[in-house]
Amino acid sequence: MFTLSLYSQIESTTIKISSDEKAPIISKHIYGHFAEHLGRSVYDGFYVGEDSSIPNTNGIRNDIIDALKGLKTPNLRWPGGCFADEYHWKDGVGPKQDRPVIINTHWGQVEEDNSFGTHEFLKLCELLDAEPYLAGNVGSGTVEELNDWVEYCNYDGNTDMAKWRKANGQEEPWRVKYWGIGNESWGCGGNMTPEYFANLYRQYATYARSYPGSSVKRIASGADADNYHWTEVMMKDVPHWMMWGLSLHYYTRTGWPPSGSATKFDESDYFLIMKQCLKTSEILDTHISIMDKYDPRKRVALVVDEWGSWYAVEEGTNPGFAYQQNSMRDAMIAGISLNMFNERADRIKMANLAQAVNVLQAVILTDGEKMLLTPTYHVMKMYAAHQDSKLLPVSFESPKYTFNGESLPAISASASKDKNGLVHISLVNIDSQKENVVEIDCGELGVEGFTGTVVASKKLQDHNSFDNPGKIAVGEFKDFKFKKGKLSITIPPFSVVMVEGK
């Protein structure tokens, strides 16, 4: 067990933050979320039905709407995931009593009644003021099916698809921009080779058309973790104008199937998970180097549309539902990952945490009418300040977090400046027992004072429960000094800190 009273000798490191006019904007879409038809994500999560006693709008929980609006959720990916490649969108429109019941073969073999379909999802996005990101079915679908879906959503005219949309209650087209072409096509999306999928993608992408007033951004199914050959083939064999983005999936886990408890772990487990999370940096850089080789102008975005922790499910829950708790360890994963995405904002233009509600590294958990916000939620709420802000490049030599003779970088950081001139610096200290001090020369930043917030707790295993939903939250942070343009910050063990300068 690790408490804040177990501080060892404090180390100090100097962080240089530069103001670079050529630095990229950190796209708000890096802070996207994911809602798959998996376990209790959609049903009993987002969607409770209009006849529910839980306050809702068109069947969508009001408390979840409010919570996700609090994160400034920029986009939401749906309906999968693996489910996307067995999903036939026409089953989910029209009168609900006429919609067919299917089996969700990927996730628990449960029956899916299609009561939450295209109209319900796009209403959810409207309520969130978020861009929808629709994942098209390549694994078991057809080119015509995807073409029809794009036309149904985006065409403003009198074709059969447009008239069907209007008959189902949506007069104006939604003009959906982001379209995924396939999902994990190397695995659950068809077990394809990259060479085969590259040709198939070209065919599907040809018919996922832009219509007047509706420009489509196509996102190709990309690699799993360190499958660099997949990225190489896609960048080499697909014309870049056909791809707005190429996806990448990487989960922080210790093996397959996922193992270990989300809350019952020791320092050895924690250190290993931190090591796996930090491996993201190498994976991102290698994929980006391949993309740079074929696309030096960075026209194709890297889209990390599935990321987060993956452990064994909570005891007593359906193994196919991927329901797990969320501790301070996950707060570390969130902060580190978002810092890595921010720092690569010239290539990474979108990312989606897996997933928003009741699945994997969720920001929200529900139990009937009860709802709680996880430590990951609170980190993402702090980091929302980076959305659409100009990256301020950081450079430093991190102190080490050492355990059993192995060492990892203890400090992770990223910084940005928004359109109003506010500077935000996000810092993570993964060391389980030792606070660390960082010194920042703010001479180039043009700021005169700072305020701070923090996500921290007494034990790594601490988490929010339905009995104690407020155990971990964003708190005020004052453990810093700003004098003569120099900022000195003392970061507690296993904590995430955000300071704002103006």
Describe, in plain words, how this protein is organized in 3D:
By secondary structure, this protein is an alpha/beta fold. Helix content is 23%, strand content 27%. The protein contains nine helices and 28 strands. It has helices spanning 62-70, 118-128, 143-154, 160-167, 194-207, 228-237, 267-294, 328-343, 375-383, and strands spanning 11-17, 25-26, 32-34, 56-57, 60-61, 75-78, 102-104, 110-112, 131-136, 178-181, 217-224, 245-252, 301-309, 348-353, 364-367, 370-373, 389-391, 394-395, 400-403, 406-409, 411-417, 423-429, 436-441, 450-455, 475-477, 480-483, 486-491, 495-501. Strands 3-6-9-10-11-12-13-14 form an eight-stranded parallel beta barrel, surrounded by five helices. It has a seven-stranded antiparallel β-sheet with strand order 2-17-21-22-28-24-25, with helices on one face. Strands 18-1-23-27-26 form a five-stranded mixed β-sheet, with no helix packed on it. Helix 5 packs across helix 6 (228-237) and helix 6 runs parallel beside helix 7 (267-294). The longest helix is centred in the middle third of the chain and has 28 residues, at 267-294. The chain is globular.
Describe this protein with a few key phrases.
single chain, 502 residues, alpha/beta, 28 strands
